Amino acid sequence: MSTSDASTPASADRSLRGLLLLLATIAGVAVANIYYNQPLLDNFRQSFPNSASWVGVVPAVTQLGYAAGMLLLAPLGDRFDRRRLILLQTAGMCVTLVIAAAAQNLPVLIAASLAIGVLATIAQQAVPFAAELAPPAQRGQAVGTVMSGLLLGILLARTAAGLIAEYFGWRTVFFASVVALLVLAVVIILRLPKSKPTSTLPYGKLLVSMWHLVVEHRALREASLTGAAMFAAFSIFWSVLALLLAGAPFHLGPQAAGLFGIVGAAGAMAAPLAGKFSDRRGPRAIITMSIALVAVSFVVFALSAKSIAGLVIGVIVLDIGVQAAQISNQSRIYALKPEARSRVNTVYMVAYFIGGAVGSGVGAAVWPTFGWVGVSVAGMVFAGLAAWNHLRLPAGVQG
């Protein structure tokens, strides 16, 4: 950002908005890669019939990879220039996506999916970068703006993957992502400024310091566990939806499963609003409301095993609840220790995506035996765990 650009409040605000939109795009395009596979499970089953019973491992291992990448790569944002880290991970992601697209058996696709998850943590460099750029009074709104991009990436990934797979095959989905990442890399080189490292700790001590943050901040522990339970509920639905729609009475392909992402994207519009509310009123009340919305969504799902309209209503309620809780949780934790935002974010997001992987795994285990009602009940259980964990922390405890 040049001096002239920042010479007036209006020009500074425009410059900040432009950077936040770029960071939102980076987050969305990057994180989409861990969700492309969810509407493609039936395609994988057809391509690898000898391993058909294992296709549910693909989304689970991708989310585990994301958790591992959060733990091993995301803390580097406090130590090094985030712009450089984003570009290096983008290059690695392109190579890994080509391997996934060319996979001739399911084990290769699973291994590539694990690596995709690790490298997709590009998105988690963008979110703390936004918190660094924004003034404290606008931090929640800034995080909400970038998170809206990330959440749109999560939801629209399924739509894009379903549409592309319907007409060009599932392998083209991964090749298309390579093209998108290469275009984005050019924009990053031209527009994104360097970040300022806030730590000189060597890598090993940087990782160890995250444990001290967990011990030091009770609110970080509570937010992380609440977020994990909420994302487990979110993931159990999305990891099984394609299988529900492929069977009776729907008999719909990946395109239909993907189109549900457009419905869920309506909920992403709640992200900036949730950020503003957190800035003004504090985040705890909105988290409580969000948990209630997620619980209600699974009641709707349980009653909608044969109803597209019911599924649509449930998706909107689910996504608004999960996304509003995510923004509010992150607004809380970024205020705990400003010089360690990448590490605080890492603690939270590792727990978050472990929760997602557990949700996907539970979905894969529950679906064959208990069907859609079993999946819905499991989602309610995760919402209940989130409520118990969130409400046991006194409202006045912030650190």
UniProtKB/TrEMBL annotation:
<feature type="transmembrane region" description="Helical">
    <location>
        <begin position="18"/>
        <end position="36"/>
    </location>
</feature>
<feature type="transmembrane region" description="Helical">
    <location>
        <begin position="109"/>
        <end position="130"/>
    </location>
</feature>
<dbReference type="InterPro" id="IPR036259">
    <property type="entry name" value="MFS_trans_sf"/>
</dbReference>
<feature type="transmembrane region" description="Helical">
    <location>
        <begin position="308"/>
        <end position="325"/>
    </location>
</feature>
<feature type="transmembrane region" description="Helical">
    <location>
        <begin position="372"/>
        <end position="391"/>
    </location>
</feature>
<feature type="transmembrane region" description="Helical">
    <location>
        <begin position="285"/>
        <end position="302"/>
    </location>
</feature>
<feature type="transmembrane region" description="Helical">
    <location>
        <begin position="256"/>
        <end position="273"/>
    </location>
</feature>
<feature type="transmembrane region" description="Helical">
    <location>
        <begin position="346"/>
        <end position="366"/>
    </location>
</feature>
<keyword id="KW-1133">Transmembrane helix</keyword>
<feature type="transmembrane region" description="Helical">
    <location>
        <begin position="142"/>
        <end position="164"/>
    </location>
</feature>
<keyword id="KW-0812">Transmembrane</keyword>
<dbReference type="GO" id="GO:0022857">
    <property type="term" value="F:transmembrane transporter activity"/>
</dbReference>
<feature type="transmembrane region" description="Helical">
    <location>
        <begin position="51"/>
        <end position="73"/>
    </location>
</feature>
<feature type="transmembrane region" description="Helical">
    <location>
        <begin position="85"/>
        <end position="103"/>
    </location>
</feature>
<feature type="transmembrane region" description="Helical">
    <location>
        <begin position="170"/>
        <end position="190"/>
    </location>
</feature>
<protein>
    <submittedName>
        <fullName>Predicted arabinose efflux permease, MFS family</fullName>
    </submittedName>
</protein>
<feature type="transmembrane region" description="Helical">
    <location>
        <begin position="228"/>
        <end position="250"/>
    </location>
</feature>
<keyword id="KW-0472">Membrane</keyword>
<feature type="domain" description="Major facilitator superfamily (MFS) profile">
    <location>
        <begin position="16"/>
        <end position="399"/>
    </location>
</feature>
<dbReference type="InterPro" id="IPR020846">
    <property type="entry name" value="MFS_dom"/>
</dbReference>
<dbReference type="InterPro" id="IPR011701">
    <property type="entry name" value="MFS"/>
</dbReference>
<dbReference type="Pfam" id="PF07690">
    <property type="entry name" value="MFS_1"/>
</dbReference>
